[in-house]
Structure formats: structure tokens, C-alpha cells
């Protein structure tokens, strides 16, 4: 009887194992088939749009995307027009974030504090662009790309200042106290004041459509996909288990975004400082452990910025990659951050413009530079950026783990946190664009939130390239509609700036003791 029982148990075990293997194989095929279908669809029907947005012109041995030039030129114009406001008023901006100019007894429209608005917008920009994007830039453009990232970040501070001031000035405060603002509102209302209502409406609708697409793609699917990719890299999680990662992330995202902007801000003000501290702390450990290479790393960055010796594309390649990744990372001129900053509690639009100019500095000048230094130092030691085949998040991960193996796991945690924070912020950007087009009803809001969470699962499940190309194109397309409006409206911002600074100097606007 024992032998019969053992035989039966053996057969049952073999059958169940075989059945499981068959089911697993079938699941893998289903995921691969779905992934191919989605990617093929976007490749077949949206390729023209991607080509249009990323239209390039030959410059030396490289191709320069016109959309990057569009953003960089605007940042340069705003920097000059506002008299280098990002440098002259940096101290005032920091004091505003600290709450020194916030009257504790005043009741002002808005939903969040200056600090909460800043961390919410930062959570949308400080993300995988700082990790994977910088890795991609240095893999192609070499360490010299870092210099151009820093320059673009410094100039982009003026773009953020302009768009976020307008976001507060033209926002709509609903009867419930909730706020809707951003480019959709200042494009339509601001240009209407100038007798250009028709143009303003076209720009606003175009921006809103592109923002929804970018929210579902670059701000959602890409984040979930790369988070699972990092988990697979660090913990050997099978790629086909992405659906589990997606469901967990979607549940976490929904639990936050269902509460609206106050809930999102409450989470971001806690998570952003910690995730930034974790990442910067890791980078500092690598830099200190390799302190003897720091001088050589900076030399490689500055030499590569202008010569690009041994780097694909040379000087132009470094310039293009640096500018491209910086504009993608800090989103200055894209208009997304203005949506978050519009919800701030203030009656002075210029205060939030000043607060927002700190974002590109933190995102690009500090965090992206930290990443670039780690990669460059590793390159001096083992040379991962000069042809070893690594790029993106794998290059960054390899550069960290070259100093200590445990960084692979800490970086995985940082990537998940960055992805999560980016998703909850971009859900708000997409939601406000959605309600601008389809109405502010609770049903409309819930429909978008559910749709957004479904796309989290899809993003973590499939492997794609054309989908990301399309969502990247939508993100950059937002800047076309936004910057056209900014050129018309920047005199409004300048008037607000002069008025506010004059009242601060006269003592009419005073600092409060904390």
C-alpha cells in the first residue's frame, strides 16, 4: 500500500509540476504576444508623430533634435528677460519655501503649502530620468554630456519660474476649495485677455491632450516598467512576474491618488526628501570612496564637453545628449510642474514662481550631476561607458555596484521609490488635463484614476519601445503649446515680479518669524 501511495503521490506531483510549467509557458507566450501587439500598434500608427516631434537636423556627425533646441532657446530667452532671476532671487526663493513670507493667520485659496507643492512637482521630475536617463546620456555622449546637463538645468530654472507664476495667477478655485490650474488655464485665459482667445483655446486643448498621453506613458507605464526591470536585475525576479509588480504598484498608487492633491502632497512631502537623501547619500559614499578620482572625473567632464575625444559624435554628441536628457529630466518649459504649483496656498503668484525655480537645480544640477560623477568615476576605474554595452539603468547600477555590491539592492529601492513618486504626481497632471477637457465631476475624476492604474499594470507587464517613443514625443509636444503661450505672457510675469520685489523692499510684504 505504501508503494502504491508513493507512486500515486509521485504521479500527482509530476502532473502538477508539468501542468504548472505548461501554464507558465502559456502565460509567457500570452504576455509576449500582448507586448508585441501593443508595440506594433504604436509603431504602425504613431511613428509619424514621433518622427515629427523629434525632427532632427544634422550637426557635424550627429543629429540635433529641433525640440531640444526649442526648449533650450526658450530657457535662454527667459533667463535674459527676467534678468537672471534664478541667481539673483535664489535666497528669497529658499526663504519662501521655509515659510518666512507666509502669514500664519491668513486664509488663502489653495490646497497645499509651498513646500508640499515643491515636493509634489519634484516627485514628478526626480525619477528614472535621473538614473536611467543620465546613464543613457553618458553611454552615448560620454562624461562631457554632464556639463551640458548642468548648463541646461541652470537655464531651465527661468522657464519653471515663468510657467509656475502663470499657473497660480490664472488658476481656477472650485466651490469645494479644490484648485485646477496649469497651462490649460493660463493659455486659454491669459491669451484671451490679450485678445487671442481663439489661439489660447487651441493651445490649451492641444496641451491637455498631450499631457494625458504623456501621463499614461512617460509618467506611468515607463516608470512601472523600469521599476520591475530593476527588481529583476537586483533580485532575479522573473520578467513575466511584471503583472504582480504592476498590481502592487497600482494598488499603492490608487490608495494615494484617490484622496486628490492633499493626499498626494502629504505623501510626496515625506517620500521625496527621504528618497533624495538615500540616492545622494549612496552617490556621496561612492565619491568619497574614490576621492582620488574626483579630480580626474571633473577633468573628463569638462574636456569631454568641448572635445569629446573617443566619444561617439564628439563635442556635438556630448552636447546633444546632455541637453536632451536634462530637458527630459527637469521638464522645464514642458508645463507639467505648473499644474502642481497651481494648488499652493498663496495670493501672490510670483512666490510660487520663485519656489519652482529651485526644481531644475535640485533635479539636474544636484541629482543628475551626482549620477554622472558616479558613472564617470566607475568609467575611470573599469570603463563601463566606453563601449562595454551597458546603457541606461544598467550602466548606472553597474557603476554603483563597482564600489559596493549592496548598492544594487539599495538602488532597486531608490528606483521603486522614484517610480512610485513620479506616477502619483503625473496622475495629478493627467487628471487636471482630463477634467479640463471632460469636466470636473467626481465620475470623470474616478474614471481617469482607474484608467491610470490599469496602465500601471500594463506598463509593468509588457516590454516595449515604440510605446515609450510615443509617450516621450507627447511629453516634448507639451512644450510646443506651452512655450508659444509663455512668449505672449512673459510680460505679465515680469510685471508681477517687479511688483512683488518692490513690496518686499518697502516692507509692505514682510517676513514672519518662525
UniProtKB/TrEMBL annotation:
InterPro entries: Na/Ala_symport
Predominant location category: membrane
Keyword Translocase: no
TM helices/strands, residue ranges: 66-84, 131-151, 202-221, 241-259, 271-291, 297-320, 361-380, 409-429, 450-468, 474-493
Keyword Transmembrane: yes
Cellular localization per UniProt: Cell inner membrane; Cell membrane
Record keywords: Cell inner membrane, Cell membrane, Membrane, Signal, Symport, Transmembrane, Transmembrane helix, Transport
A Pfam cross-reference name: Na_Ala_symp
Signal sequence annotation: 1-21
Membrane topology per record: Multi-pass membrane protein
Entry similarity comment: Belongs to the alanine or glycine:cation symporter (AGCS) (TC 2.A.25) family.
Entries under PANTHER family matching the protein: AGSS FAMILY TRANSPORTER, SODIUM-ALANINE (PTHR30330), TRANSCRIPTIONAL REGULATOR, LRP FAMILY (PTHR30330:SF3)
Protein name according to UniProt: Alanine:cation symporter family protein
